[in-house]
Write a structure and sequence with these properties.
- With 208 residues, this protein is an all-alpha fold.
- Helix content is 68%, strand content 0%.
- It folds into two domains: 96 residues; 80 residues.
- It is built from six helices and no strands.
- It is flat and about 65 Å long.
């Protein structure tokens, strides 16, 4: 569908940006599924991503409806139908893989967490505002906490560590992920070019 010459309103730009972000998240999940190897990946990792996929689909539909309600010509109905069909195919593929690869072992070894804390994307020449610097510092702190948890998991030894210790760290990890998403949204809202969308997608996938 062609878009109006006047361009989108401020609210529409936010919705379009949100829609692109959701699609990018689903694309990362799709790449994981395409490269799924039962020798090194677990059905639990698939299940977590399937849950995330369902959340993304629901969120996409909400955003798409908001875009349609504004009625500015950016609903892209044909693209939505294609995207919806691709999501259904991806969902079915994941469910099939989970059914075929459900593990029988009690303890699933967690893969090494390799996220790079340093951003690979360029930042604006003007530099961040005071509020942005605080948010970026907070984001780095959260990533560092998760890195410590990851190091513990990599070195987990059931002979000397307990499942309770793992559970406590899992709770902390979930808190960090929620906090990271809040901080990331605040950074995106300031719209100064520090949202690091690609890095966010990689980081989110590694946390899953």
């Amino acid at each position: 569908m062609s878009t109006p010459e006047a361009g989108p309103s401020k609210d529409m730009r936010k919705l379009i940006k949100h829609r692109v972000s959701i699609k990018s998240t689903i694309q990362v999940i799709n790449e994981y599924v395409k490269n799924f190897n039962p020798a090194i990946h677990s059905s639990r990792q698939l299940q977590i991503r399937l849950t995330k996929l369902n959340e993304c689909i629901d969120l996409f539909n909400e955003v798409q409806q908001s875009i349609a309600d504004l009625d500015q010509g950016y609903d892209e109905e044909r693209e939505r139908l294609i995207f919806e069909d691709e999501c259904l195919t991806l969902k079915a593929t994941m469910e099939d893989l989970i059914a075929k690869n459900t593990p029988t072992e009690i303890l699933i070894q967690v893969q090494r967490f390799n996220h790079k804390l340093n951003c690979t994307m360029s930042t604006p020449e003007a530099g961040p505002s005071k509020d942005m610097r605080k948010l970026i510092k907070h984001r780095v702190s959260i990533k560092s906490t998760i890195q410590v948890i990851n190091e513990y998991v990599k070195n987990f030894n059931p002979a000397i560590h307990s499942s309770r210790q793992l559970q406590i760290r899992l709770t902390k990890l979930n808190e960090c992920i929620d906090l990271f998403n809040e901080v990331q949204q605040s950074i995106a809202d300031l719209d100064q070019g520090y949202d690091e969308e690609r890095e966010r997608l990689i980081f989110e996938d590694e946390c899953l």
